[in-house]
Amino acid sequence: MKQVIRVGTRGSILALKQTEEVVAALQNILPSAVIKVVTIQTRGDIRHDSTFPGIQGMFVKELEEALLQGSIDIAVHSLKDLPTTSPPGLTLAAILPRKDPRDCLVSQGGQKLLELPPGSSVGTGSPRRAVQILKKRPDLHVVPLRGNVTTRMARMWEGRVDALVLAYAGLLRLGLEGEVAEVFDPWNFVPAPSQGVIACETRCGEGWEKLLAPLHHPETAQAVSIERLFLSCIGGGCQKAIGAFAEVQNGWVRLVGMLEGRVGWREGPFAAGEAIVQDLAQELGGKR
């Protein structure tokens, strides 16, 4: 009998696009396997109005419950949605190559952030993006806006807002990069920790980790381990304005971190990554 692999995902267009990448990679290493995609609605998908307070793991819990109950074998996540620790019995088995870490601006008139007329409205549901927008343009109005990428784009074209700040990787995956007016430098407009990265979570001790090992990208994993450690040291949740971006090359790490508009930089040996992260988190007012 052919091996059947059940891959769980959220049902948004972007989540399904990300899952297609995972399925294609799995099919490449297991051409005879039957891979079934199982869509699961999360509480974050049910409530995406602007009054809904973002909570950590709101796009994750139902997928993890399906893993633990055995109704799926692999869960595909945007890594930035995942808490920094997995529930008992689950593990992150593969972190795929990062697509692009940066944020970008989409605007009705094609203007860049500094070109928007005074008083323009910019939509985002992210406190991290909001504080950085207002730091650069205090004359703009940030409008709370939730929903998937296509929903937010539609609201902009309906006139709800003049512009949006979104993850560039999502627009790339949806083939909407032509809509982008500006892509921000991640050292100047700090992304969310792990932005642009797909992760595969599974149950421990059943052989799935070995099966997923060929999908794992060590260089990306090293960089996001630094970013997620910063998030853990800060004690972050969805309601805090937290950003982090790291690059690791030849055993050397460069890191930028942001907390509520305060920004700091560090660099040093990757082997000393924990001390580097803790030092920066302390400088910016983290929990340690």
How would you portray this structure in words?
The chain has 288 residues and is of the alpha/beta class. The protein has three domains: 1-96 and 197-216, D-Maltodextrin-Binding Protein, domain 2, CATH 3.40.190; 103-183, 3-Layer(aba) Sandwich (D-Maltodextrin-Binding Protein, domain 2), CATH 3.40.190; 218-287, Porphobilinogen deaminase, C-terminal domain (Double Stranded RNA Binding Domain). 31% of the residues lie in helices and 25% in strands. The chain is globular, with a radius of gyration of 19 Å. The chain starts with a strand and ends with a helix.
Helix and strand element order: EHEHHEEEEHEHEHEEHHEEEH
Judged by helices, strands and strand pairing, the structural class is alpha/beta
Q: What share of the residues does DSSP label as strand, in percent?
A: 25-35%
Number of helices: 9
Question: What is the annotated CATH architecture of the largest domain?
Answer: 3-Layer(aba) Sandwich
Cα gyration radius (Å)? 19 Å
Report the CATH topology name of the largest domain.
Answer: D-Maltodextrin-Binding Protein, domain 2
What's the number of extended β-strand segments?
Answer: 13
How is the main sheet built? Answer: 5 strands, mixed
Provide mean pLDDT, rounded.
Answer: 92
Shape: globular
Distance between the termini: 53 Å
GO molecular function: hydroxymethylbilane synthase activity
Domain Porphobilinogen deaminase N-terminal: 5-204
Protein name: Porphobilinogen deaminase
Keywords: Porphyrin biosynthesis, Transferase
